[in-house]
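Figure 6 in text form: structure in, sequence out.
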């Protein structure tokens, strides 16, 4: 029997998850969408498998799986509203809020099943890396289904929840700083009269690497190699010695638009005004 799927908060990440499910034809009965800004759902208004809901309660009551895709500061309000839905504690919730534990969500919903996932932006082009964990009440078949949902837009890594926060610096924050750093170099080259073609738009950039596995599992070398690609053409290679929530230390080789640069980079995100320290 097909399951119904609710989405609370229809932002870019939620849309990427929906797109992966639809593309993979995973047998969802219907999608029930709610966003406090109704225009966020308008692209789905004319699609027969989607229903746009006026409130959270309606979306939850009609669904088996509920994706909570709101900002962490809005969780308390959303969870409180969910509790007004009939049978809310018998549903399965997928939480993607950074820093929000599965235990806290389950406790707020009176012991409900919760799967916590940390997806990243490359998911929007089908090349995401999502780390995933669950609480003890989730059945294996339910966990397998949710794992396949995120696998449809990239790859997944199953970990213990105690390791979840540490992966933010690996799969989300640090790659973003890499892009910003490369973009800063590009702008400097352009200011100096050197023409280049480069963009940091998420739909054109992806990272192909084994950084999550290397840093969480056995690390054989003293660095992890990361390739940065633009339209599937490699433009930079980084040899990363340290990846964490607040620091990145790496060597880099950048080669694009007839420009070659070698050097090292140290990022310290503890400072309120984070600055790059690069040596060429």
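Output sequence:
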């Amino acid at each position: 029997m097909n399951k119904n799927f609710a989405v609370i908060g229809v932002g870019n990440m939620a849309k990427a998850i929906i797109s992966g499910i639809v593309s993979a034809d995973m047998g969802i009965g219907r999608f029930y969408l709610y966003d406090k800004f109704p225009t966020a759902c308008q692209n789905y208004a004319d699609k027969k498998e989607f229903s746009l809901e006026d409130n959270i309660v309606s979306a939850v009551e009609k669904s088996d799986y509920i994706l909570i895709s709101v900002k962490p500061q809005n969780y308390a309000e959303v969870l409180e509203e969910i509790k007004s839905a009939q049978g809310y504690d018998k549903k399965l919730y997928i939480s993607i809020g950074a820093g929000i534990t599965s235990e806290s969500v389950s406790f707020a919903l009176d012991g409900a099943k919760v799967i916590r996932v940390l997806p990243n932006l490359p998911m929007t082009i089908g090349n995401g890396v999502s780390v995933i964990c669950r609480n003890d009440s989730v059945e294996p078949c339910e966990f397998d289904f949710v794992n396949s949902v995120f696998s449809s837009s990239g790859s997944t890594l199953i970990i213990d929840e105690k390791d979840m926060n540490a992966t933010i610096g690996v799969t989300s924050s640090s790659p973003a700083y890499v892009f910003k750093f490369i973009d800063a170099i590009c702008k400097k080259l352009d200011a100096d009269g050197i023409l280049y073609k480069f963009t940091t738009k998420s739909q054109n950039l992806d990272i192909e690497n084994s950084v999550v596995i290397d840093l969480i599992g056995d690390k054989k070398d003293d660095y992890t190699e990361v390739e940065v690609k633009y339209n599937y053409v490699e433009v930079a290679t980084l040899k990363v010695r340290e990846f964490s929530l607040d620091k990145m230390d790496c060597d880099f080789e950048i080669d694009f638009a007839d420009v070659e640069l070698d050097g090292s980079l140290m990022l310290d995100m503890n400072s309120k005004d984070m600055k790059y320290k690069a040596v060429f």
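Caption detail: The first strand starts at residue 3 and ends at 8.
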